[in-house]
Structure formats: structure tokens, C-alpha cells
Amino acid sequence: MSKGKWEMVPLEQVIANRLGSIDPSKYPDETFDLYSIPSFDRGQHEIVQGSVIGSSKQIVQENDVMLSKIVPHIRRAWVVGSSNGRRMIASGEWIVFRSTSFHPAYLKRVLTSNEFHTQFMGTVAGVGGSLLRARPSQVAKIHIPCPPLPEQRRIAAILDTADLIRRKRKAAIAKLDELAQSVFYEMFGDPVKNEKGWEISELSSIAEIRIGPFGSLLHKNDYVPDGIPLINPCHMIDRKVYCEPDYSVAPDKLKELASYRVKANDLIFARRGDIGRCAIITETEDGYLCGTGSMFVRPNPNTINSIFLLHAMTSNGIKQELENKSKGITMKNLNSAELGSTTIPVPPIKKQNRFFELLSQIESLSNKQNLAFTDEDLLFSSLQHRAFSGEL
Predict the structure, then answer these.
(1) Which of 65, 124, 137, 235 is the most buried (most CB within 10 A)?
(2) Into how many domains does the chain fold?
(3) 386 inside domain
(4) How high is the pLDDT of residue 301?
(5) So what's the pLDDT on residue 390?
(6) Domain of 323: which CATH number?
């Protein structure tokens, strides 16, 4: 059936405006099913007593569909489950939809689709990430396709299956990330406790440490688009570097700062803000510039392997130690002397290199899984488009 034959329904016909509210604290001994934004992010609603709920909530019912109006760029839609004999309530951050014309699973898929999300973001007001919120009065004006209920069930089933494949792939990638750290702890133990009795060295004795250019050496007006990138803390994500074209310098300026250029296998650290954030420099970033909020560590390759050092320095114990060493109230700062005084275990280089070999195998598997996830993500987007265009 083509979309042209489907009715396009404004959401004002679907938004549940008379939900009623309840103050759970007036029923301290009653147990409620609470649907909140934090519980959505954890993947499960809360079962909680009224005595610990501090504000009034919306009353919801089974098969209601909820859409988060806060931090709207994150797509949060939820179908209320069965009551199990408890009253069900939801925080005020949800826009609640209720209609016998829509299958709940189908409606949830519509509300998280690319086409709807584009329109949804057009209803947003406010300034800055957590302060942004969608305006229900504007959301109510958005029209969505309403095919016959059997068609809605069919579309929802197809999209649910495709999404399940994506989520399983994503879980597999997360498990590979966990495996890398598990292999590290299995081979070397906790770097702070050093249960295996490795030789201990200060970082400054096994690596060169250099802080990024500061003061008059580099200003924002030195930045040019599409020059040689520099690496600030915001460019370190999940132990990798992701630079931006607007954060770069001209070749002439780079000559003045040649001693601040990083090399492959260096580690680059955040020295301001999120202390302990770091990444490894690959061949791609070789020759980039260490930013003003960063410092880099160049290990002695005869003593310590960069991959081993990366995992040691990002372990929970050492990250906490660096946090404790940093100074500042509004923004934490870490200097090269404080980083250099950090002690780490130094196992035999052959064992470190064996860890690198194992990590390379895990990385290869992870890359394959990420490529597959990208393909599945594209397929899912295509299925969504076709489904809500009546072409599925």
C-alpha cells in the first residue's frame, strides 16, 4: 500500500492531554512503576515506593507511547509496559501519546525515525544542551502516516527485527572493548596494586613528557581552517584522536612550534578539565600539533610499549591518582611534573609486546564489527524510509 493512500494524522489527535497527576509521597507505602529519563537510559523502568519519589508525576497506562522533550537530539521513545498490579507514573519530561488508531510499537518507530526527528528538532526552544526542550504545542502540529493497523504491526515487526540485529552488533563491539581491558588485567594485574610484583618506575624516567604551547606561543587568532591540525582535550575520544579542520595552524606557524609536534606512538593527555583523558597517536596524526590544553608522552620503546602504557594510564586507579594530583577549583589542571611523578609497573618488554599483538587481533575484530554495524545502520535507515513511505 502506498503512502499516498495513508491518512496523515496530526499528533494533536494522539497526544494524551488529560493524564492526571499524582504526588507519590502522599502514598509512602505504595509501590509504583516509575518511567523516568534516567531509567530509560538504564534500559528498565524503576519499581519504587512513594516515600522516595520527591515530586508529582503523570499517570500513564499500558501501551502509552512516550517521547522525551528534553535533550531532544537524543532519540528517546518508550512504550509503557503492563502494570503488574502497580500504578504506573512518568516524569514530566515525557510527551505522552495514546490512541487506538496506532499500534504502540509502530508509533514508537515513527517517533524515532529520521524524517520525524528532523521535524521534531524544529520544535525545540532553549539555549545549550540540557536546557533544550521540544515544545509539545509545536510537536502537536507534526503529521505522521497512519496506515491500517495490520500494516502498522507488519512494519513494526520488520523494524524491530532489523534494530535487534543492530543492537546485538553494538553489544558485541562493547564486549570487544571490555575484552581488551580484561586481557590487560589478566596479563599485568592492577597497575596501582601491582599484585604481580613488576618493577616500578616513575613515568618521567621511561618517557619524555612535554606540555603543549602556552602563553604567547599560540593564540586563537593563529588558527586557520584546513591547516595542520592541533589536538586539544576535546579531540580525544575513546582513546583515539578526532581532529577538526578549524582547529589547525598554518605551516609557517608550525615551524615556530616544531618541538610541540607529536609522533606516531606518542600518548597525548588532557592537562585541563577531564584529567586522565588520553589517546594514542597513530600514523594518521604523526606531525600534528599538541594543543595548549594538552601534553604528550613519548615512551622509550626499549622499555615500554605505547599500547601497554595507554591501558595502564587509563586504568581506574591511575586515572584517580591523576585526578587527585591535579589542582584548581573551577577547572582542574595537571602539569608535566605531576604526570611524570606517576609510578607505573614496567613488565618485561617482550610481555608488553605480546599484549600489543593480542590487542591488534582484538582491534581487527572490532574494526570488522564496526564496518558491519555501519552497513546495518544504513540498512535500518533505508528500511525506515521505505516503511514510512509505503514502499516496504
Answers:
(1) 65
(2) 2
(3) no
(4) 93
(5) 85
(6) 3.90.220.20
Sign of CA dihedral 144, 145, 149, 155: negative
332, 231: one domain: yes
3-class secondary-structure state, position 68:
strand
Residues 139 and 212 in one domain: no
The reply to whether 184 falls in a domain is: no
**17 SS3 class:** coil
pLDDT higher than 90, residue 299: yes
- Coil, strand or helix at 330: coil
Which residue range is the domain that position 322 belongs to?
A: 199-346
- What is the C-alpha separation between 191 and 200, in angstroms, rounded? 10
Residues 122 and 249 in one domain: no
Q: What is the pLDDT of residues 129-155, one digit of tens each?
A: 556 889 999 999 999 999 999 999 999
pLDDT band at 4 (very low <50, low <70, confident <90, very high): low
All 3 cell numbers of residue 359? 590487542
**Is 128 a residue whose pLDDT tops 70?**
no
Question: Do residues 40 and 78 lie in contact, with contact meaning Cβ atoms separated by under 8 Å?
Answer: yes
- At 240, list the grid cell: 583515539
139 and 236 share one domain: no
369, three cell numbers: 564489527
Closest among 206, 213, 323, 328 to 261, alpha carbons compared: 213
**Domain match, 203 and 87 both:** no
